[in-house]
Design a protein that fits this description.
The protein is built from 24 helices and 24 strands. By secondary structure, the chain is of the alpha+beta class. The chain folds into six domains: 62 residues, Helix Hairpins, CATH 1.10.287; 225 residues, DNA ligase/mRNA capping enzyme (D-amino Acid Aminotransferase, Chain A, domain 1, 2-Layer Sandwich), CATH 3.30.470.30; 104 residues, Beta Barrel (OB fold (Dihydrolipoamide Acetyltransferase, E2P)), CATH 2.40.50; 72 residues, Orthogonal Bundle (DNA polymerase, domain 1), CATH 1.10.150.20; 76 residues, 5' to 3' exonuclease, C-terminal subdomain (DNA polymerase, domain 1, Orthogonal Bundle), CATH 1.10.150; 79 residues, BRCT domain (Rossmann fold). The chain starts with a helix and ends in a 6-residue tail after the last helix.
Length: 664
Amino acid sequence: MMSGTEKEKQILRMRELIPILGEASRAYYQESREIMSDRAYDALYDELLDLERKSGIVLSGSPTQKVGYETVTNLPKKRHPAPMLSQNKTKSVEELQNFLGDQSGLLSWKMDGLTVVLTYENGRLSEAVTRGNGEVGAIVTANARTFRNIPLRIDFQDTLIVRGEAVIRYDDFEEINRSLPEDGPQYKNPRNLCSGSVLQLSSAVTASRRVRLYVFSLVTAGGRSFASRHEELDFVRSLGFETVEYRFVDRDSLPEAVAAFKQDIAQYPIPSDGLVLLMDDVEYGKSLGTTAKYPRDSIAFKWADEIERTHLRRIEWSASRTGLINPVAIFDPVELEGTSVSRASVHNLSVMKELALGEGDEIGVYKANMIIPQIAENYTRSDTIRPPKTCPVCGHATVVHESGEAQTLYCTNPECPARQIKKFDLFVSRNAMNIDGLSEMTLEKLIDIGAVREFADLFRLGERKEEIVQLEGFGEKSFENLLEAAKNASKTNFVRLITGLGISNVGPATARTLSRYFHADLDALRKADAASLQAVPDIGPVVAEGIAAFFADPAHGRELDELLRYLTLEEENAGGDEGKATSLAGLTFVITGSLEHFSNRDALKTRIEDRGGKVAGSVSSKTTALINNDAASSSAKNQTAKKLGVAILTEEAFLKQYFPDETF
């Protein structure tokens, strides 16, 4: 029997934890901001859950008894027919095996976005509702119609209801941030941006945010019933939806499947925060019932944090193009998830204060979701580091901004050179002008001495030789290498140039679309107005207006004219093969697994799109071929391809069939 004093202590601690967790959840789900890390929240939540188990008491307002929070937008609301429960979670593969028992299951990504329920009537999208607090959600039908990858009509006349996760892919998120004004703030992460985008009052804004939806559950399909969850997802895919990527598993194959997902994390293009294991047998899963909060037919798996101890050497203050000055922890290198790590973002002043950092402190570091290095704990807590009073780049005064619980540091100088770095970093990047050797650090040095103020300056650095060779890290050889790289880059093409200009919402894919439509005629593009740009395939009003506004700006026009004095725009169909640019037109491919001839999937995707083809995220009846070097694997994509009769080609076979004229 537990003593009264011990129980009183537990209740007191529970009363402390509930408002802390409530405020963190409110900030994350309702205000799209974070006041503590996922790891810190999970630790406090698990502590509360353990106290409730031990004491047998659950206090009013406990987040362990809530599904979420009420939507706080002006959008109309709707009560779900049945509560949308969250999932129990574990960090143990063994616990996953025990959960599955002798059943088979589907192991899939746990995508990090916003859950949305779509309803179709008579073959048309009739309603979209967010999860909200699990009982009441916001109606976002007009916004859902702008999602990048959902069908607005389907070949199914009965009522169809599906659940999916609305997300913004990493590549889209980065492109959106690059398109923002240089003197404005940037979005923090894809999850928060997606949440704000789906809950917009203006569907035009939602359309500009590149939201996609991946279905993870079929709720109802008229009178149809299915024996297994994978059959349900197959049916959903057959109607034109993209579904979550999954693997078939049993107790024995689970560890290998978890390891395979772990290996794919770094390349996976969709934000995720773990995995989900779902019983494949529909009736068996339903027979398990639910608890007050969790369904018993599924469980979430969160990656166990690999924490290494090291010593903090200093805080590096990194100025950005928005004026924000971020603290970055520099520490003795440690091995984490197979790579050497020596630096981690501290996010803001509030987090720095919470960690009480000081030079020489012993700290624990880990990779959040096995990708992003972060500080887990500070074991010393000397609290000796203070934010700088002047900007590390321009020397102007800094100022502390407060927004709710978060404190951030800003440079007060609107002309700070750091605000120009990202503009040039995009311009010289691999997908744009591809000027080798011009790292962000090098650009910063060139901007600091006034050698680079506009794009054309990068092609006349020879005029500043005396100053540049005196810079730290430079010499005659490195300077000559830089001039040679700029000379090579001056022979470029329409797509690379347009990608590098930093036009709002225009990345490599959109640049290729513009190239095909305007036949790589830059003058024609510069003269096009918003109305005519909307006639370009896959370009909507928001993107069209952004492109037209960019070229209508006299300052951009002058900078581009000056730049063109140093460039040679090569014919993209050079060599007499005028048909090359459209040789894959009308064909759609899906890429999965590791590659041998290309550095990553994006590189192969670019090559396909350069020839007029398309690359999709999932296999459907419209897929021309699935490119997979492991053609015998039992992955979901392979199984879907076999079922639909879609060709599965190794990379070698694909290149021989579709690029017989090129050497790789």
